[in-house]
Specification:
CATH architecture of the largest domain: 3-Layer(aba) Sandwich
Number of strands: 11
Strand content: 15-25%
CATH superfamily of the largest domain: P-loop containing nucleotide triphosphate hydrolases
Number of helices: 5
CATH topology of the largest domain: Rossmann fold
Strand order of the largest sheet: 5-2-6-7-1-8
Bound molecules: zinc ion
Radius of gyration: 21 Å
Shape: elongated
Order of helices and strands: EHEEEEHEHEHEEEEH
Number of domains: 2
Helix content: 25-40%
Protein backbone atom coordinates (compact mmCIF):
# COMPACT_ATOMS: atom_id res chain seq x y z
CA UNK A 1 0.00 0.00 0.00
CA UNK A 2 1.03 3.55 -0.67
CA UNK A 3 -0.17 5.80 2.12
CA UNK A 4 0.11 9.53 2.58
CA UNK A 5 -0.15 11.16 5.99
CA UNK A 6 -0.53 14.88 5.49
CA UNK A 7 -0.54 17.48 8.19
CA UNK A 8 0.65 20.94 9.14
CA UNK A 9 3.88 21.68 10.94
CA UNK A 10 3.70 20.53 14.50
CA UNK A 11 1.28 17.71 13.84
CA UNK A 12 3.86 15.15 14.92
CA UNK A 13 4.52 13.69 11.49
CA UNK A 14 8.14 12.76 12.08
CA UNK A 15 7.27 11.15 15.38
CA UNK A 16 4.63 9.05 13.68
CA UNK A 17 7.03 8.22 10.85
CA UNK A 18 9.64 6.90 13.28
CA UNK A 19 6.98 4.96 15.14
CA UNK A 20 5.84 3.40 11.89
CA UNK A 21 9.39 2.29 11.04
CA UNK A 22 9.73 0.82 14.52
CA UNK A 23 6.50 -1.11 14.08
CA UNK A 24 7.58 -2.58 10.76
CA UNK A 25 10.91 -3.68 12.23
CA UNK A 26 9.19 -5.18 15.25
CA UNK A 27 7.23 -7.29 12.79
CA UNK A 28 10.51 -8.56 11.36
CA UNK A 29 10.51 -6.44 8.23
CA UNK A 30 13.50 -4.61 6.82
CA UNK A 31 13.25 -1.30 5.12
CA UNK A 32 14.55 2.18 4.59
CA UNK A 33 13.89 5.61 6.01
CA UNK A 34 13.91 8.46 3.54
CA UNK A 35 13.81 12.14 4.20
CA UNK A 36 13.85 15.38 2.29
CA UNK A 37 16.86 17.51 1.45
CA UNK A 38 16.40 19.80 4.46
CA UNK A 39 16.95 17.22 7.15
CA UNK A 40 20.67 16.54 7.00
CA UNK A 41 20.24 12.81 6.56
CA UNK A 42 18.41 12.37 9.84
CA UNK A 43 14.78 11.71 10.57
CA UNK A 44 14.13 13.32 13.93
CA UNK A 45 11.06 14.02 16.03
CA UNK A 46 10.28 16.68 18.56
CA UNK A 47 10.24 13.92 21.15
CA UNK A 48 13.98 13.60 20.78
CA UNK A 49 14.12 10.41 18.77
CA UNK A 50 16.26 10.39 15.65
CA UNK A 51 17.49 7.90 13.09
CA UNK A 52 19.70 7.97 10.08
CA UNK A 53 17.79 8.29 6.86
CA UNK A 54 18.53 8.38 3.18
CA UNK A 55 18.33 11.92 1.95
CA UNK A 56 16.26 12.34 -1.19
CA UNK A 57 17.21 14.85 -3.82
CA UNK A 58 15.35 15.73 -6.98
CA UNK A 59 17.53 13.31 -8.92
CA UNK A 60 17.15 10.32 -6.58
CA UNK A 61 15.92 7.16 -8.27
CA UNK A 62 13.56 5.73 -5.68
CA UNK A 63 13.15 2.41 -7.49
CA UNK A 64 16.84 1.83 -6.87
CA UNK A 65 16.77 3.16 -3.32
CA UNK A 66 13.94 0.82 -2.34
CA UNK A 67 15.46 -2.25 -3.95
CA UNK A 68 15.32 -5.18 -1.54
CA UNK A 69 13.26 -3.35 1.07
CA UNK A 70 9.99 -4.57 2.44
CA UNK A 71 8.93 -1.15 3.67
CA UNK A 72 9.83 2.50 3.25
CA UNK A 73 8.95 5.41 5.48
CA UNK A 74 9.31 8.80 3.84
CA UNK A 75 9.39 12.03 5.83
CA UNK A 76 9.21 15.50 4.25
CA UNK A 77 7.36 13.89 1.38
CA UNK A 78 6.32 17.28 0.07
CA UNK A 79 9.80 17.45 -1.45
CA UNK A 80 9.28 14.42 -3.65
CA UNK A 81 8.91 15.12 -7.32
CA UNK A 82 5.74 13.85 -9.02
CA UNK A 83 7.96 11.41 -10.91
CA UNK A 84 9.35 10.04 -7.64
CA UNK A 85 5.83 9.54 -6.32
CA UNK A 86 5.11 7.53 -9.46
CA UNK A 87 8.24 5.48 -8.76
CA UNK A 88 6.97 4.76 -5.25
CA UNK A 89 3.61 3.66 -6.60
CA UNK A 90 5.34 1.35 -9.08
CA UNK A 91 7.46 -0.23 -6.35
CA UNK A 92 4.36 -0.80 -4.24
CA UNK A 93 2.58 -2.48 -7.11
CA UNK A 94 5.43 -4.55 -8.50
CA UNK A 95 7.29 -5.56 -5.36
CA UNK A 96 4.63 -5.38 -2.66
CA UNK A 97 6.62 -2.82 -0.66
CA UNK A 98 4.69 -0.90 2.00
CA UNK A 99 5.36 2.81 1.57
CA UNK A 100 4.22 5.39 4.11
CA UNK A 101 4.78 9.05 3.26
CA UNK A 102 4.55 11.93 5.71
CA UNK A 103 4.55 15.54 4.71
CA UNK A 104 2.93 18.87 4.26
CA UNK A 105 0.00 19.07 1.93
CA UNK A 106 0.24 22.75 1.07
CA UNK A 107 2.81 25.51 1.07
CA UNK A 108 2.71 28.92 2.75
CA UNK A 109 0.37 30.20 0.08
CA UNK A 110 -2.04 27.31 0.69
CA UNK A 111 -1.19 25.66 -2.62
CA UNK A 112 -0.39 21.98 -3.00
CA UNK A 113 3.23 20.92 -3.21
CA UNK A 114 3.63 19.04 -6.52
CA UNK A 115 4.77 15.85 -4.81
CA UNK A 116 1.95 16.03 -2.27
CA UNK A 117 -0.56 16.58 -5.04
CA UNK A 118 0.70 13.50 -6.87
CA UNK A 119 0.45 11.52 -3.64
CA UNK A 120 -3.18 12.58 -3.23
CA UNK A 121 -3.78 11.38 -6.78
CA UNK A 122 -2.00 8.03 -6.47
CA UNK A 123 -1.99 6.94 -2.84
CA UNK A 124 -4.19 4.09 -1.70
CA UNK A 125 -4.89 6.05 1.46
CA UNK A 126 -4.65 9.73 2.31
CA UNK A 127 -4.86 10.66 5.97
CA UNK A 128 -4.97 14.16 7.34
CA UNK A 129 -3.25 14.33 10.70
CA UNK A 130 -4.67 16.25 13.60
CA UNK A 131 -2.75 19.31 14.62
CA UNK A 132 -1.64 19.73 18.21
CA UNK A 133 -4.04 19.52 21.08
CA UNK A 134 -5.44 22.86 22.17
CA UNK A 135 -7.07 24.27 25.27
CA UNK A 136 -10.72 25.34 24.94
CA UNK A 137 -9.47 28.92 24.50
CA UNK A 138 -7.37 28.00 21.48
CA UNK A 139 -4.00 28.27 23.20
CA UNK A 140 -1.66 25.29 23.08
CA UNK A 141 -2.76 22.58 25.49
CA UNK A 142 0.01 22.08 27.99
CA UNK A 143 -1.40 20.41 31.08
CA UNK A 144 -3.36 17.20 31.24
CA UNK A 145 -5.59 18.53 34.03
CA UNK A 146 -7.45 16.20 36.29
CA UNK A 147 -11.04 17.30 36.89
CA UNK A 148 -12.89 16.27 40.04
CA UNK A 149 -16.34 17.55 40.83
CA UNK A 150 -16.03 20.09 38.04
CA UNK A 151 -12.83 21.54 39.49
CA UNK A 152 -9.19 21.24 38.62
CA UNK A 153 -7.68 18.88 41.15
CA UNK A 154 -4.64 20.23 43.02
CA UNK A 155 -3.64 17.17 44.99
CA UNK A 156 -3.95 13.42 44.92
CA UNK A 157 -2.02 10.39 43.81
CA UNK A 158 0.08 10.79 40.70
CA UNK A 159 -1.47 7.70 39.19
CA UNK A 160 -5.03 6.80 40.02
CA UNK A 161 -6.14 3.22 40.12
CA UNK A 162 -9.71 2.36 39.21
CA UNK A 163 -12.63 4.63 38.44
CA UNK A 164 -12.94 7.23 41.15
CA UNK A 165 -14.86 9.85 39.23
CA UNK A 166 -12.01 11.86 37.79
CA UNK A 167 -11.77 13.00 34.22
CA UNK A 168 -8.93 14.59 32.33
CA UNK A 169 -8.87 17.62 30.11
CA UNK A 170 -6.01 19.31 28.35
CA UNK A 171 -5.73 22.97 29.32
CA UNK A 172 -3.30 25.76 28.56
CA UNK A 173 -0.99 26.79 31.35
CA UNK A 174 -3.05 29.87 32.23
CA UNK A 175 -6.43 28.16 32.44
CA UNK A 176 -4.95 25.27 34.32
CA UNK A 177 -3.43 27.76 36.80
CA UNK A 178 -6.75 29.62 37.17
CA UNK A 179 -8.71 26.39 37.24
CA UNK A 180 -11.03 27.42 34.42
CA UNK A 181 -12.06 24.26 32.65
CA UNK A 182 -14.37 25.72 30.04
CA UNK A 183 -15.66 28.99 28.70
CA UNK A 184 -17.69 31.02 31.18
CA UNK A 185 -16.79 28.79 34.07
CA UNK A 186 -14.53 29.44 37.03
ZN1 LIG B 1 -6.74 28.18 27.74
Amino acid sequence: MLRFFAGPMGAGKSTLALQMAYNYRSAGREGVLLTGPSRDGRMSSRLGVAEDAVQITESSDLVGVLMGSSFAVVDEAQFLTPRQVEQLAAVVDRAGVAVDCFGLLTDFRSHLFPGSGRLVELADEVNRLQADVFCWCGAPGLINARIEGGRVARSGAQVQVGDIGSTYRVLCRQHWAYGITEKGRS
